[in-house]
Amino acid sequence: SLEIDFAEIRKSSNILTSKGIIFHRSDPDKLFFYSKPLLNEINKPITLSLTSGETGITTLAVHAYEELSDLKLDVSDLKNETGRLFSGNIEWKYVHYNPRRVDYYGRGQTWHWVADYFSDFLEDSNAKKNTNKVFWLKINANPEAETGIYKGNIRVSDSKGEIGLITLEIKIRTFKLIGLSNRSIGIYPDDGRWKQLNDDNILKELKDFKQHGINQLFAPSGRPLVRNNEITGWTFDKKDMRLMYLIMGQNIRGSFIVQFSWLDKWLADFFKIPNAELKKDPVLWPLEVKETYKKCLIFFKMEFDKNGWGEAVFHAVDEPGYWKKGSPEHFMWKYK
């Protein structure tokens, strides 16, 4: 069972409505749908410091005293003391919580709640009585945003009308961040999951990655092309081609990381030898298997290049120090 100590909240007519209250918690890692707002968090202004061209994130929550539906935010214009408008844009989404094992890789029965993803689905817009609806806000300051303090309000409402306002203050600092144009910044998404999504949902994620400077992703590995029991080339299926088409359309150019840990078992099946044989040191593999492995990498690279997808980096083994026996030297022959 989960035991949580909550701070007492006394109702005050100037900060609470009959429907719920708005609050801001500085540490989003300690904010959940079951969290109770502390007194110093109620109607607490949201403040962010950014430089021009920078993106900042924060959260806002509504604690419901009754069932609330179709909760949403409206952000007013943000202006500095001279009336100049903030140069940038503000987006918001609902935070969706899911349970996850504390022992992520094990078989334990201890679970905790995590902010699993951000959503703009209507079904995530409701809040049950005595729970929170948490909003995730992303503030993008344009490169031309001028130094200053910009203030405005966020209006929170549900299907029955306004719940309240909270102040939003953005400070644009005088310095600029150094660019990372000479660096590759990657993320480890589940490209298998993307195969189950439609183009629009994939593009939403890819555009978000691009906006955050991500230019390195996992790419599909395809499979060997076999004719007359001989590996003669490489092929990517329609889902692979579709995904790479969408990635290329967002001008994400890699290098791309390609997962090849599946190839060991595939070759064991192809040569009809026990899979255990290919769990041994690759130095002990049959020469025919080693040569065919290298042949597969060459065919893959040729087909990848033919499609104009750029540079690929082979990812031969996942987390060797955690659950697989071996060492980096053990697997290095695959890259030679």
- What kind of sheet is the major sheet? 5 strands, antiparallel
- Detail the poorly predicted runs: 1-15, 322-336
Shape: elongated
How many β-strand stretches?
Answer: 14
User: How many helices in DSSP terms?
Assistant: 6
Mean residue pLDDT: 84
The chain-level structural class is alpha+beta
Task: Tell me roughly what share of residues is in helical segments.
Answer: 10-25%
Walkthrough of the structure:
The protein is α+β, with helices and mostly antiparallel strands and 336 residues long. 18% of the residues lie in helices and 30% in strands. It contains six helices and 14 strands. Strands 1-3-7-5-6 form a five-stranded antiparallel beta sheet, with no helix packed on it. It has a four-stranded mixed beta sheet with strand order 2-9-8-4, with no helix packed on it. A three-stranded parallel beta sheet has the order 10-13-14. A hairpin with a 2-residue loop joins strand 11 and strand 12. The longest helix has 20 residues. It is elongated.
Layout of strands and helices, then pairs:
Blueprint: E1 20-23, E2 46-50, E3 55-64, E4 72-75, E5 88-101, E6 111-119, E7 132-141, E8 148-158, E9 161-172, H1 191-194, H2 199-211, E10 218-219, E11 223-227, E12 230-235, H3 238-249, E13 256-259, H4 263-271, H5 287-306, E14 312-315, H6 328-331
Parallel strand pairs: 2-9, 10-13, 13-14
Antiparallel strand pairs: 1-3, 3-7, 4-8, 5-6, 5-7, 8-9, 11-12
